Amino acid sequence: MRLDESEQSENLEDVRGSGGGFGGGMPIPGGRGGLGIGAILILGLIGYATGIDPRILIGGAEMIFGGGGNSGYVQQSMPEQQSSGPPQDEQGRFISAVLANTEKVWGEVLPQQTGKAYPPPKLVLYSGMTSTACGPGQRAAGPFYCPLDQKVYLDLGFFDDMRRKFGTRMGQFAIAYVVAHEIGHHIQNVLGTLPKVEAAQKRVSEKDSNGLQVRVELQADCFAGVWAANADQRFKILEAGDVQDALNAASAVGDDTLQKETQGYVVPDSFTHGSSAQRTRWFATGLKTVQLAACNTFNANPL
Ligand SMILES: [Zn+2]
Question: Are 208 and 241 within 8 A, CB to CB?
Answer without folding.
Answer: no
